[in-house]
Amino acid sequence: MIIQCKQCRTKFRFNDALMEGDGLWMRCSRCQHVFFQDNPAMVKPPAESMPEKEPAAIEEEPSAPPPQKTRPKEEPISGGDEDVALFIDDVMKAKSSPSEEITFDIEKPAVEEIKKEKADAAELPTGRVEDREAKASPRLIWKILRVALWVLLVVVVIPALIYFFVFPQWGDRIIKIADHYLGINIEELTRPQVVTGQVKLQDIRQRILRNYALGPIRVVEGMAVNQADYPISRIAIKGEIVDAYAVVLGERSSYAGNVLSDEELSVLTEEEINRRLAQPEGSNNSNDKIMPNAQIPFMIVFIREPKGVIKTTVMTIGAERLL
Using one digit for the tens of pLDDT, what is the confidence trace for 274-308? Predict the structure, then answer.
């Protein structure tokens, strides 16, 4: 059977065995137009009320197949009957000059195929969402862990360092309170005991030297004596310069055991002087262990001091007991 698309007028060859009932819905494989194709076997003859005309003569060809009866000529009609008549004429013409063979799709399989595509499209976003959730879950866990670590650092670690090393008396008090109310026998953290009261400063003197790059510098020197019955280490000394109104104009600190010669003080830069005086262990590790009644020298240097200095004071700001 030859079928012609009602939109692009392309002719196709169709298997008669697939035609069912009054006809089938079909879709053109070229322009995708969907139309209803009537079953030629079910086409009704023209209405009886229409005037009949004598049938045209049938010409027979000697070598052709058995002759076919031509449809009686009728007056032009409208509606569905006209479409049926045009279709039958096209079928009769196509037998002598068939066009290219292009398969026609039946509408039922096409509908099923469209439904399947929609179902696959509906399932695809769900899978993508699940994949994104699976990929995002490790990131979310890592983000939560990082926030927890930051909270632990800010709430526990930093305050503990401040209490136990900057304000040791507060740390001891917190430990005692927690041990009293919680009853968990918290042991005190092992840390050096500060014994600044056991250090005596003596033989203090000061002088003014000239540095070739820095100009006049004030040098304060003296001796630190261990008056305790046990060894101590890391003695630190702080010096202050004040004016006539007891206003502090500047301060410097250094560790005992670090002493520079006059030649070094006259040629070293400010950074080098400060670095040499800030060694906690002192030169030759002399500030690591000071035995009872032993003494160790110290030096404090003021650079670029302001005008109006009339007094210099020194004090011990650090000393650790050796266990």
Answer: 999 999 999 889 999 999 999 999 999 999 889 89
Quick one: fold of 196-321? Immunoglobulin-like (2.60.40)
What DSSP element (H or E) covers 224?
strand 215-226
Look-up of token digits 């066009």: 99
Beta-carbon contacts of residue 170 (< 8 Å; ≥ 6 apart): 163
Distance CA 117, CA 102 (A): 24
What is the spatial distance between Cα 107 and Cα 103, in angstroms, rounded to a whole number? 13
130-177 pLDDT, tens per residue?
A: 555 555 577 788 888 888 888 887 777 777 776 666 666 566 666 667
Delimit the domains of the chain by residue range: 2-103, 123-191, 196-321
Distance CA 287, CA 299 (A): 13
pTM score? 0.43
